[in-house]
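Severity: low
Component: inverse-folding endpoint
Summary: output formatting inconsistent between runs
Steps to reproduce: submit the following structure tokens with default settings.
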């Protein structure tokens, strides 16, 4: 999956043009998603040196982006203001409607393809299997009781 991720307010606390403190588990989660073969693209309004600093901040912590402000890694770091919207399957951004979920929830939503509501209600795949099993058990008990 191609994942567009914002920097300020998403990976680090919003202190633009400075770099805020890391938001808990942001970089570990992105490294894990990257290791699981998702393409992580940094999608930031930062330009020039400020953009380089953000890329370097992540690199020092072991996070390499697939591409920066571009769909194509061969374009290198796109330092000028970009005009075109990135093409991604999902975007992780603190300006999402409803704000930024915590990174544990973001991981579950991305890897299990859940909506925010499903993740909030714990409706992931395992739970669904569990529900199906208990439902099957209930029907079996009802059938037995009916005899
Ligand atoms: Mg932001």
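Observed output (run 2 of 3):
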């Amino acid at each position: 999956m191609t994942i567009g991720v914002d920097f300020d307010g998403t990976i680090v606390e919003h202190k633009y043009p400075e770099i805020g403190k890391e938001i808990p588990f942001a970089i570990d989660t992105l490294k894990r998603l990257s290791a699981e073969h998702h393409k992580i693209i940094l999608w930031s309004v930062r330009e020039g040196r400020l953009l380089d600093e953000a890329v370097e901040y992540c690199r020092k912590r072991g996070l390499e982006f697939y591409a920066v402000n571009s769909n194509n890694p061969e374009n290198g770091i796109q330092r000028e203001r970009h005009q075109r919207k990135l093409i991604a399957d999902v975007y992780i951004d603190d300006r999402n409607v409803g704000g930024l979920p915590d990174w544990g929830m973001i991981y579950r939503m991305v890897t299990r393809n859940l909506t925010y509501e499903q993740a909030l209600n714990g409706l992931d795949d395992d739970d669904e299997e569990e529900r199906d099993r208990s439902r099957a058990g209930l029907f079996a008990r009802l059938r037995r009781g009916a005899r």
